[in-house]
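Lecture 7, part 2: worked example. A protein chain together with 2-acetamido-2-deoxy-beta-D-glucopyranose.
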Amino acid sequence: MWQQTDCVCLILSAIITGSLSVSWDMKVSPVVSVPRGEDAVLGCSFTHPRQQDYSGLITVKWLARESNAPPFLMCSLRNYSKEELKDCSGSGLKHSLKGDPRQGDLSLIMRKVHVADSGPYFCRVELDGVWQYEQKETRLLVTVNPQILSLSVVEPSSDPNSTTRRLKCEVEGNPPPTITWLSDSRHLSTDQVFTSPVSLERLFSSVVYVEGEVFTCRVENMLGGAERRYPADNTLIITLSVDGLIVLLMSTGVIHYTRKKARAESSHVYENAAAGENHRLRGSDRPAGGDAELQ
Ligand SMILES: *[C@@H]1O[C@H](CO)[C@@H](O)[C@H](O)[C@H]1NC(C)=O
Ligand SMILES: *[C@@H]1O[C@H](CO)[C@@H](O)[C@H](O)[C@H]1NC(C)=O
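Predicted complex, written out as structure tokens:
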């Protein structure tokens, strides 16, 4: 008699711990940020109540944009199969599964992402048919550091509607950056500035330009900023991005080192070395026309 109770208790506790410890759950990161051109991994993992002894079919689907869109990647495998994951690694081109769905890993790898790949994605798993499923949304953000691609004067002849010369600043960045014009000589009201997108990550802005004026075009988004002056002069262009800052710090270090070394030698040599530095600094400045940028 006591043996029977014991047995029932065991079964009961197994059922209770089994169903309490593992329930349907799916984990994704809400947003995945990846620089343009790199590979993105959209992480996704799941657990389900029957996973201790589940030997049925696991169907993995990845959807883009809409939660009910047709999947752009889909694969099915039985949980007892020891076979390679060849069906799940896709064509090996743009998308493939990174992990093993039998271990609850549904993560997706996307190669060499473009800004156009940004947006919502949906990770979905179905067990033994479509009525047992879980689906979660994750977002991909493909980032582009803000930078100025060109800053130049456009003659009226190249734009039939315009009779004045305009200074045109073309930039890129994602998330979409803001463009600000700075002028020493006049206050710019918003109706004097014309801004328009060129492509997903590029846009240009222009202002009326009168010979002799000095303008600075500045571009910024959450990743940083950059600016450029027109006409170009011997001022160092300050790139606010982390890359630019590191290069700047490194070159300052080099100059200090050169100075220290020079000081150790005679004062005459030091003067020459200093002159050499100045010359080198100017050399790394942007040439007239203002199309190069110190990075
Ligand atoms: C597949 O089976 C193994 C071993 O039986 C189990 O550990 C795993 O959780 C199962 N996977 C799924 C997704 O049910
Ligand atoms: C140029 O002018 C024409 C006629 O006024 C107008 O339809 C067109 O949209 C203008 N183009 C631009 C780029 O402003």
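The longest strand covers residues 133-154. The domain at 22-142 is CATH 2.60.40.10 (Immunoglobulin-like). Keep this in mind for problem set question 3.
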